[in-house]
Design goal:
This protein is mostly beta strands. The chain is 0% helix and 46% strand. The model has no long low-confidence stretch (mean pLDDT 93).
């Protein structure tokens, strides 16, 4: 996210402008040292652990950790015949993880001979996020994807007048929103339940996780104005400390509702993340 996703500077729909064209032929790469100790675990075994990882940012993609080969238990890796080509990085080789009774095919990749113009990826290995059972930064387990050091979430109380409509019917009307400003994403208006027509909401049971906000299983389908919109609203009851101000408040996808703020209609954004 942030640098490379959504409205980030190297994302699909950057909010700003450059004095150069970066999108052709395939985007931009940015490799940096990470100060965090990172560990990956498969079937209870630590496959890699390093305080010398590098974080690769690539246009349109989430950041990826690369581990020095000497910090990876390569005896648990089995070479495969799979290869892929990147116009920015070169040809990638792949390995299968065999740890305990677990076999994770093509779960590790690296660029033995990266392109000359690419960052120095040689001698480093990356892991497919979902192929690993546990990811740790320091002593904290993380999920979903690597956290971007340039990603920021700010929750600010506001007195803006926010009206949410679905099919022309008012679903929420509030003058006391808390606004979540999250890098690369549209502002989200989190509203007190008392300001929402909760009778128009049906629990859906959907669960999602975000490395910056936490996990929620409180999603709602909205039935209003002759429309039925699945998973349109959500609540984080126990968000991460950094966004504690949204706890217990309801938010709606700006992308799917008619949103009015201080009497002005907001255009629907094209990027959809909760």
């Amino acid at each position: 996210m942030t640098l490379t996703i959504g409205t980030g500077p190297f994302g699909d729909v950057p909010a700003g402008t450059f004095n150069f064209t970066y999108a052709a032929p395939g985007g931009v790469l940015y490799l940096e040292d990470s100060p965090r100790r990172v560990r990956v675990v498969v079937a209870g075994e630590t496959v890699a652990e390093s305080s010398r990882t590098k974080l690769l940012h690539e246009s349109g993609l989430l950041p990826v950790y690369y581990f020095p080969e000497e910090d990876v238990r390569t005896e648990l890796l089995e070479p495969t015949d799979r290869t892929t080509h990147s116009g920015l990085k070169g040809d990638a080789s792949y390995w299968t993880i065999r740890a305990g009774d677990a076999v994770r095919e093509h779960a590790v990749w690296g660029y033995p001979e990266p392109l000359p113009e690419a960052p120095p990826l040689g001698g480093s290995l990356a892991f497919a996020w979902d192929a690993v059972d546990e990811w740790w930064e320091e002593a904290e387990r993380i999920g979903v994807h690597a956290r971007d050091p340039y990603h920021r979430c700010d929750v600010i109380r506001s007195d803006r007048h926010v009206v949410v409509r679905v099919g022309g019917e008012v679903v929420a009307d509030s003058r006391r929103p808390s606004i979540l400003f999250e890098t690369g994403l549209p502002p989200r208006f989190y509203l007190p339940e008392d300001d929402v027509e909760v009778g128009l909401l049906e629990p859906s049971g959907t669960e999602t996780s975000c490395p910056y906000k936490g996990t929620t299983s409180r999603y709602f389908t909205v039935v209003a104005g002759g429309e039925r919109l699945e998973d349109l609203a959500w609540v984080y009851d126990d968000p991460r400390d950094e966004v504690r101000g949204i706890a217990g408040l309801l938010a709606f996808y700006n992308e799917k509702v008619d949103l009015e703020v201080d009497g002005e209609r907001w255009e629907r954004p094209t990027t959809k993340f909760s």
